[in-house]
Write a structure and sequence with these properties.
homodimer, 590 residues, nine-stranded mixed beta sheet
């Protein structure tokens, strides 16, 4: 697929030295990811495309309008992120793009899975449009699992084959995003079969996601359609998938980093044609301080990979995975997306060019973007069932008297993400369960924020929370309002604030909000730039640490309600056993 | 692009061991071209697709209908020819396929350039249909240069953008064939621009052909669209093209073999992602005795290339060039096209499978083909201007008297393909030029065979022809009737025979045909199988050697009239200077 639709006649005329090029970048050491060679060159550019790479001694008789001195630096292709969720950064696509550009990323292939769960197709369209407001290429894949687990929780949208097809037909959409219901694929369930059909009939890329799928299940998954994986966490699994024809996206995200194992899985193979790089989830602070795809390249180089090989994985191989014919290399007919770097080490580039334009210099984003504010986004926090502090009281089972047996969610061996349950006898006051006198206990409430009126309250001891409340509208995968609280007034303060601001995260004490980050876009994303978002997140995380102890991280908050985790979890509809994917009873009479 | 449209549900069910596979090939050393590894495996197959590759120790609970013992041999992917003209073998696609299959070729990508020049779109359609009558995959590319050189010669069809577009929409057509008017591309001529547009708008493969294009012309050619080259004959040219993003098809044909230089052009590069193999033109005798793609693989291995690398070039890299997602490797979801070989040396495989079926064993083609005769083909030899022996008399210039000055075509330093001219005073009898008494001279007549009535006669000394005549309807690129003769009765005998049989090659002496090969399909192809065609060609070549000396080869005959050669040449419309692409005067008064 040619991603660029430029006037070929002008490009040919420029190559033939009949018209001027826009720019020549002179005096660079060209890193050729097509052949693995490095040599001095000058690069002529017109209309955002590379017209010609002139090796030393090759002159042109028509001087370009602008001569850019590469200062003897290496010219390497711009990096391509083969799989990421913009929402994980809590930034808009435009701000993510600006933050990634300075690190040499020139293309991102994103899965707007989170906003799709909240806002459906409108959310996908918003991401596509917003992505155009900055300089790097922002491609979108159609989320394949909205909701991730139908029936167990309420969310904002349902995508079947029809909806996925509608998205695939949008300009800028390049495939189906991580097909994570791998059980559904290898069991050939109708829903996944139909969704994949939409991709196949359009000859589009099918991105996989199959952690621990091996042997017959792996073969069946591949036969079902998906062709890639970024979830493998052990070397043998990586090797098996590559041998079986999968493309492996080496991943080092802000959450998971199995890069050492993943690299072991490719070591000793003669070719890495089917290996590229992704970040999956990258947090604002990491993006600000450590980088983006370059950070994974840096790690691979530190692990002993040849720099030019790591660069190829991050550029040409990524483009070939997507069949982007004109991205990922520096040669005639490729988009002029490249970086100038002093060393081949994965550190910050000196200059970054996209479409032949300088967009970042020494960490400063310099592109002249459309600065218009984003269109008014709807407030997606719609919770009629939360109308007063009393709505956070937990009803005791009918006819229970002074106490009841409650299934308390409890951390499993110190891991707050994977929860088990233990039955406790708890006092009941005025028909409501009480945790008075139980310092180790808190309430948690998951409230549907899409107007269904569902909510569910449980008792837990997962956090060392001593007082107040903390709440989030970022709560994977359905992003319902999730609040942890010692007192209902603080929970209510959080709810009031997030209803008002259209979502975000906040902490309250004594019935008053003491820290918040506003995420008005779908309750998932801030409108602020990377540095501010990073600071705001750090701020609220520190506040919550003051309530819950130093061990606490925001990640524990946002994955608490994830129904695909093993163990018990809570959704707006009930308590779930992740292994059986069934509801469990939460309370009974003593 | 998925080339196979199989029932995914059945394949998934087979992988999950819910239904039986058709066959398991056990006990092989799998050569994995995806990773460069070799290991013991069993391969399960259903509906012509690979369902699963089980490594040693991986069992299945559902036994396949058939167990095939691989006997410990290597299993390698079937080979793919990235560029060839079936017509060069003088065989039909069905017979070419059968002959190539025994050598491990399982896919050919063919350019029906020759039949298109004779029969236009009907010819292309015929090739597509006929190719289905045998077992290997026969893909067709739309010829881009019909005629090769408009205006200088008459042929049977004209392809502009509209005709190329019509062909691209046919099932089984996978791109535009070698875009050989490279001057037209880099000068951005309207015709080539329009033809290439048809490919780009359908997102189809654009095959290049740019001998000696370097520097700015090479960049302009690439920007014009084509992405590959098989014509490079020196190492630096190969290297330059690869650096500039072209895909190089290493070629060893029956006519041209610059493999040593081509290989030098890729030596020292870290990766060969963009290198594959083609045969371009392969003659029946070579196909019978030396092989097909395997013969190029063998040569590369003999030159020092790692066998597994050469095998990858001939399979996976070829498939990736065309973006055939499911060909070229042995893994779940790939078509079950493979070979069993005792050694990785490029010699004849023991067994060849296509679509999971055994199609050849130890050099014997075993597939159960549709044996129905081909549909009646039209006789394409239509020459109303050749109605009697006297039509081969060469008219002297008007008013010339007893003699005239004639521009005699003469071989250039012993090279019969590149011809110069020398003016000679020749006798004129009854208004006709005579070569009586000039043992070294012969006549040559090129007669339009598409009904235009054009013909052109010249005198030449290119062959050491002592008597009789020889004629061919295979005469690149327009395939007009071309006859070389000492006497008009022998020329007439040849013409009568070829008119009657619908074309071919023949030799005559004393007014009688003494040897012939019938090529009734478009005057280009025999209906016979490889061995017979090889014998028939050898027979007529030997007969002609008896007329012209041992130095003679049929190749000299069939390229005599090629107007793109440098030097002088003859077409049905006149004598051409290949360098200037202009007509030249052939005779004048003394």
């Amino acid at each position: 697929m040619r991603t660029q639709k430029k006037d070929r006649s002008r490009l040919i005329a420029a190559a033939m030295q009949k018209i001027q090029c826009d720019m020549t970048v002179e005096n660079v050491q060209l890193v050729n990811v097509l052949t693995g060679e490095i040599y001095p060159a000058s690069v002529d550019i017109l209309d955002g495309m590379i017209v010609r790479v002139r090796e030393k001694g090759e002159e042109t008789s028509v001087k370009s309008k602008e001569i850019y001195d590469g200062g003897g630096k290496y010219m390497i292709p711009g990096f391509i992120d083969t799989h990421m969720h913009v929402e994980s950064s809590m930034m808009l696509p435009e701000n993510l793009g600006r933050a990634a550009a300075v690190w040499g990323t020139t293309t991102v292939c994103t899965d707007p899975h989170e906003i799709a769960n909240v806002m459906g197709i409108d959310g996908v369209r918003f991401m596509l449009e917003n992505g155009k407001k900055q300089a790097i290429r922002h491609y979108v894949l159609a989320p394949s699992s909205v909701p991730a687990v139908p029936a167990l929780e309420g969310n904002g949208a349902y995508f079947g084959a029809e909806e996925v097809g509608e998205i695939l037909d949008m300009d800028g959409v390049v495939g189906i995003a991580e097909i994570m219901d791998y059980v559904g694929v290898y069991n050939d369930c109708e829903r996944m079969h139909g969704i994949i059909d939409e991709g196949i009939k359009r000859n589009m890329f099918l991105q996989g996601h199959s952690p621990m799928a091996r042997g017959k299940e792996l073969a069946a998954y591949i036969l079902g359609g998906p062709k890639s994986d970024h979830e493998s966490s052990i070397a043998d699994e990586v090797r098996e998938k590559l041998r079986n024809g999968m493309h492996i996206n080496l991943r080092a995200s802000s959450i998971i980093d199995a890069l050492t194992e993943q690299k072991k899985g490719i070591d000793g193979q003669l070719w890495h044609d089917n290996v590229s790089i992704c970040t999956d989830d990258v947090h604002a602070k990491d993006l600000l301080e450590k980088g983006h795809i370059n950070a994974v390249v840096r790690k691979l180089i530190e692990m002993g990979m040849e720099p030019i090989e790591a660069i190829k994985l991050a550029s040409y191989n990524a483009a070939r995975e997507y069949n982007f014919e004109d991205l990922g290399a520096i040669a005639p007919g490729y988009a002029a997306d490249f970086q100038l770097v002093k060393r081949l080490d994965g550190n910050m580039p000196s200059e970054v060019f996209v479409d032949g334009r300088l967009v970042a210099e020494n960490g400063v984003y310099t592109a002249d973007d459309d600065k218009s504010p984003i269109a008014d986004m709807p407030n997606t926090v719609n919770m009629p069932q939360i109308a007063s502090p009393e709505d956070f009281l937990m009803k005791a089972p009918e006819g229970c008297g002074d106490s009841a047996k409650i299934l308390v969610l409890t951390r499993n061996g110190g891991n707050a993400a994977v929860k088990t349950g233990r039955w406790m006898e708890l006092p009941v006051k005025n028909g409501y369960v009480s945790i008075d006198g139980h310092d180790e206990l808190q309430f948690v409430c998951v409230a549907n924020r899409y107007g269904s009126g569902d909510k569910n309250i449980a008792v837990m001891d997962c956090f060392d929370m001593k007082e107040g409340a903390m709440a989030t509208t970022v709560s994977h995968d359905s992003h319902n309002f999730t609040v942890f609280y010692k007192d209902i007034d603080s929970a209510w303060a959080c709810a009031e604030r997030l209803k008002e601001t259209g979502g975000g995260m906040c902490a309250a004490k004594d019935g008053k909000v003491i820290s918040a980050i506003e995420l008005p876009v779908a309750g998932l994303m801030s409108t602020h730039a990377c540095k501010e978002v990073s600071d705001e997140i750090e701020n609220i995380e520190n506040t919550i640490k003051s309530l819950c102890g130093e061990e606490f991280t925001l990640l524990m908050l946002v994955v608490f309600s994830l129904p695909v985790l093993p163990g018990l979890t809570l959704t707006d509809r009930g308590m779930i056993d992740g292994m059986t994917q069934r509801f469990v009873q939460q309370s009974c009479l003593s």
